[in-house]
Amino acid sequence: MASGARKLELQLLEACKRAYERRLTFGTSGNASVRLGEEILVTPSGCCLGDLTRADIVKVGLSGKKLAGRRQPTRELAMHLELYRARPDIHAILHTHPPHTMAFALLGKAIPPLTPELKLRVGKVVTVKYRPPGSKELASEVATKLRGLAAVLEKHGLVTVGQTPLDALYVAEAVEEAARAAFLTRVLSLRC
Fold first, then answer.
1. For 176, which of 1, 98, 154, 191 could close a Cys bridge (C-beta 3.0–4.6 Å)?
2. CATH code, 70
């Protein structure tokens, strides 16, 4: 593997570890990928993002064909592939389940842009109507709606994108911080 590709693979693992440590995901939920030209390095199905090693990463082509790896790719692979096809400007995708963002996702409510970070760095966070996890319908809907950096998946989670895995992680953190601020603001407004 070329040094640039190795660097991105290590950054993918670091972004996954940080997402788990910062409670943006839990257990074996969540997935991530990075695009290397016509190939994608993607996290495997059924593994904790916080425990991944280089040996766990799966390489697939843009067609979805598995090229290397001992595990099976995430069941959300179709969503990653559709996003990369629709958005040649992105090179990394992170799908997480942050608790405050999930509260908004479960209620089908938009996250208000209360924080400067969300307004300035992320922009509009779109909400994607519920489609079953791992389905082609979800993949298509996300690829159609996500024109910025983040999308809340109704009753499901959060998808963020960027040029690198760490960029996608920072977007997820900004969205979760805005969701947390909105949640706390609503709770405090009921008590004050």
1. 98
2. 3.40.225.10
